[in-house]
């Protein structure tokens, strides 16, 4: 199983980035997908989730700025990040989960500068 995240980079505060995570080796449409992030010195936290049913959930800190979506035909989950803030700087990880099985990608770095 592989989860390949991309789209991170350096962006100025107020800017936008779109993360993508392509998943190989599982039946993607059967898995709940999510994005997590981990900033230096902090615990990994849930950013946004999109279960198989399609309803989404977000951390309070990103509500109204980030949008998670999935394309089951492309085995891909996305995270559109707008109005980025300095505190959004972190490594972003995609996650796939079904019952007791869960898988992580390697992460992609997002750095927001002032």
What percent of residues are in strands?
over 45%
Secondary-structure element series: EEEEEEEEEEE
Q: Can you give the mean pLDDT?
A: 96
Overall outline? globular
Strand elements, count: 11
In brief:
The chain has 114 residues and is mostly beta strands. Helices cover 0% and strands 55% of the residues.
Task: Characterise this structure.
- This protein is mainly beta and 114 residues long.
- Helices cover 0% and strands 55% of the residues.
- The chain has no helices and 11 strands.
- It has strands spanning 2-6, 9-12, 17-24, 32-38, 45-50, 57-58, 66-71, 76-81, 90-98, 101-104, 108-113.
- The strands form 2 sheets. Strands 2, 4, 5, 6, 9, 10 and 11 form a 7-stranded mixed beta sheet that branches. A 4-stranded antiparallel beta sheet has the order 1-3-8-7, with no helix packed on it.
- The chain is globular.
- The chain starts with a strand and ends with a strand.
- The model has no long low-confidence stretch (mean pLDDT 96).
What's the structural blueprint in terms of helices and strands?
Layout (H helix, E strand, L loop, with lengths): L1 E5 L2 E4 L4 E8 L7 E7 L6 E6 L6 E2 L7 E6 L4 E6 L8 E9 L2 E4 L3 E6 L1
Parallel strand pairs: 2-11
Antiparallel strand pairs: 1-3, 3-8, 4-5, 4-9, 5-6, 7-8, 9-10, 9-11
Top keywords for this entry?
mainly beta; 11 strands; 114 residues; 7-stranded mixed beta sheet; single chain
